[in-house]
Amino acid sequence: MRASCATIHLGALRENLRRVRELAPGRKVMAIVKADGYGHGLERVARALEGADGFGVACIADGQRLRAAGVSQRIVVLSGIDEPADLSEMRRLNLESVIHHPTQLEWLAADHDPRPLRVWLKVDSGMHRLGFAQARVREVHARLRELPSVHRDIGLMTHFANSDVFDDPLTMHQIDGFEAATSGLAGERALANSAGVLGWPEAHGDWVRAGGALYGISVVEGRVGADFGFRPAMTLSSRLVAINQLARGDRIGYAATWECPEDMAVGVVAIGYGDGYPRSAASGTPVLLDGRPAPVVGRVSMDLVTIDLRAHPQARIGDTVVLWGRGLPVEEVAACAGTIGYDLTCGVTRRVRFTEEAA
Ligand SMILES: *Cc1c(COP(=O)(O)O)cnc(C)c1O
Q: What would the pLDDT profile of 276-293 be if each residue is shown by its tens digit?
């Protein structure tokens, strides 16, 4: 059996949802579960987060999976319909569509299905990715209101570009712009992502759309989820499969990038970029062995990683090695690999064995 294993901490997911509710009291929580629940497993995450008021997914296929798993809460497809044929499937599954582009509006207008579809009007308040320009919002809202194929309760949403920098005026500018563009319009408001929940209480609206925080991950630079009261929901581990006694001057791995400064023991761990451990993790990236850090030395390869065992004379073949999770925040590993924690949890590959833990 492959030694690489991702343990999903169901209790941490539940606890993190409770923490989001504590930070955004009285607001509804849309648990964002795109990218297979940020790599934690869509159905498993939805089960653990059954207390959420709704779920946000990237595409209809994820909505299909959630309904097949028995999820009865509201489900919002964040990029909405990709083609007119999506409309009937959305209605069949009672999914809600974000409407962010005039093309989608035309598809809706041409659709005469009598079952009203719930939609969320996406406002571009400064992210400049998806959404209608603020100046068009009233006209689009009025148009949606008069379409019989659209449910009367139209949600209003926007997305922040830099809310993880708690003093960036851009976010305040986005909040003000969204308010101005939507003032007086009927409908529930949803502005905040996880960083919005943490740093921008004025943007909590009716719904918060929390992703990373639910998985215990921070996007705030230099901070980890635990700093905000969140617990990691994934621990990625593997085992030591070899211990080599090397001599001073021996060089390790592809391209021979790391040279032993003295005679020393080097451990080989059965995990690599084929499992989703980042190839970009530099020498010095920590792993945990027996609860204490050991640095990666040399290049990460497809199936294996080499680590410095000088501080671990007691290490034995078969010992468990934690790559990230409990005891080693994924944000720290991500920083050593030039990326963010989300990228690592989303990137765990199918050959990794997934297990669940109640705690
Ligand atoms: C991914 C996403 C979120 C969640 O963002 P986090 O930073 O993970 O909380 C919220 N809203 C939209 C539209 C998203 O795409």
A: 999 999 999 999 999 999
169 contact partners, CB below 8 Å, separation of at least 6: none
257 and 207 in a common domain: no
344 and 209 belong to one structural domain: no
pTM: 0.97
CATH number reported for the structural domain that contains residue 298 in this entry: 2.40.37.10
- Give the CATH number for residue 55: 3.20.20.10
* 26 and 104 share one domain: yes
293-298, long-range: CB within 8 Å, 24+ apart, which pairs?
Answer: 293/328, 294/267, 294/321, 297/252, 297/253, 297/258, 297/266, 298/251, 298/252, 298/253, 298/254, 298/256, 298/257, 298/258
129 is an annotated ligand-binding site residue: yes
Same domain for 195 and 50?
yes
The set of protein residues with a Cβ atom below 6 angstroms from ligand 1 is 32, 34, 78, 159, 193-195, 209-213, 219
Q: Whose CA is nearest to atom 6 of ligand 1?
A: 211
Which residues partner with 76 through β-bridges?
56, 96
